Amino acid sequence: MFTLPKLDYQKTALAPIMSEQTLDLHHGKHHQTYITNLNNLIKGKDLEKMTLEEIIKKTSKDKSQAAIFNNASQHWNHILFWKCMKPNGGGKIPPKLEGLIKNKFGNVEKFRQEFINAGITQFGSGWCWLSINNGELEISKTPNAESPVMNNIKPILGCDVWEHSYYLDYKNKRPEYLEKFFDKLINWEFVESNI
After folding, report:
1. What CATH code is assigned to 95-193?
2. For the purposes of burial, counting CB atoms within 10 Å of the CB of 17, is it exposed (0-12), middle (13-18) or buried (19 or more)?
3. CATH classification of 20-83 is 1.10.3660.10, yes or no?
4. Start and end residues for every CATH 3.55.40.20 domain found in the chain
5. Is 60 helix (H, G, I), strand (E, B) or coil?
6. Contact yes or no for 120/113 (Cβ under 8 A)
7. Tell me, what DSSP letter sits at residue 4?
């Protein structure tokens, strides 16, 4: 049985970048609903004995399992998302990660622009990612509940661009939300620890 992970910070701790009201609804309601749905959908099935990643990989290509996939993947995505943020985040990127970013993107500003642009250009609901694919960093975007995990690629940073992630705080200004997420919320030490 899957459970809602506790946040590593208070629900007021990310304000004003992410308000207490947004965190309360997003973590306490949206994320909890994915978990409740997932537990109900896999009850009594072989999937109940699998890890979250195993469930995602097993159900991602099977349209008849779409409900299970969507809820399992959204649970996984959100576990990463909460860890990718911290109070007074952003700022200097640790040396190892910064070196990889410079090798791949040329400089941190280019990386920042590409990551934010992936989130801006994701049409409708979805996610933008920084992942490791065959030992190299890669920026991508996915619709709805999808993530690189489906394709055996390891995300190390994920940003939720579903409207429930930002609409209370930013209305329709997704670019501003993504800029603030990058500049003020990312827990770069956590991101580097995923390498």
Report:
1. 3.55.40.20
2. buried
3. no
4. 95-193
5. coil
6. no
7. P
Query: For 149, how many CA atoms within 13 A lie in the half-sphere containing its CB?
Result: 27
Contact 125, 141 (CB under 8 A): no
Q: Are 129 and 114 in contact (CB under 8 A)?
A: no
What is the average pLDDT across 37-62?
Answer: 97
Instruction: HSE, CB side, 13 Å, CA atoms: give it for residue 23.
Output: 20
Cα–Cα distance measured from residue 11 to residue 20, given in angstroms and rounded to the nearest whole number: 5
**How many angstroms separate the CA atoms of 22 and 62, rounded?**
33
- What pLDDT score does 128 carry? 98
**C-alpha torsion 69→70→72→76, nearest 10:** 120
CA 1 to centroid of chain Cα atoms: 21
Residue 136 bridge partners (DSSP) = 133
Q: Give the per-residue pLDDT at 194.
A: 97
H or E, element range at 111: helix 108-121
Residue range 97-146, pLDDT digits in tens: 999 999 999 999 999 999 999 999 999 999 999 999 999 999 999 999 99
Burial (Cβ within 10 Å: 0-12, 13-18, ≥19) of residue 9:
middle
